[in-house]
Amino acid sequence: MPSKNFPTIPDAGLPKIPLSDISFEHLAAHHDIVSFSCTHQELTDYLTVDALKNQDAHVAVTYLAVYEGKCVGYFSLLNDSTIKKDIDPEDDKDWYNHSYYPAIKIARFATHQEYEGRDVGRAMLTAVRSIAIAVSDYSGCCVLTVDAKPDAEKFYERFGFHRALKTKEKNTIPMYRCNIF
After folding, report:
1. 0.85 cut: is pTM over it?
2. Residue 108: which of 17, 20, 6, 38 has the closest Cα?
C-alpha cells in the first residue's frame, strides 16, 4: 500500500514485507513477546518488562506489529505537546495563537533485529499515522513527536520528521512531524 505521506525506502536487498501482511495488535498479557530482540537492549527490555505495566497504568499504549504469528516490531504511544517556538516557522500555523501544539508521542519504536530493512518500520509509522488521525476525531492532535536515537534520525527524516529547533542536551534527538493528515 504505497503512501504519498510515507515514501518507499530504497531496496536494501532483503525481501520487503507488504503492509497488508502485517497486522497490528494492542499488547495483551497473552502475547508471546519473550523472543523479541532488537539492536537496542533497552527497547527489548521495555517491551518485555515495562510495556504492559505502563499500559495498565494508562501511561502509554503499546501495539505489536505481527507477521506470520511473530512480533516483528512494536511501538508505544502517549499524549504529548510540542512548544510552538520549537517548530520551524514554515511548519507553524500563523492563526494558531497558543504556545503548544497538541501531539501524540512515539514513546518507543523498535523492529525485531531479524526483520530490519524489510519495511516493518514504514508499516509501523503508517499505523501510527492512522491512529493519530483517528485520535484527532476525539481530541486535538496535529503533530507527531519522537525522541529519536541518534542512529534513527535519518529513518525519521525520510518520513517527514524534523529536528526540534531548540533541544536540551540528552541521548536522543527531539523530532516532530506536523503534516499528519
Report:
1. yes
2. 38
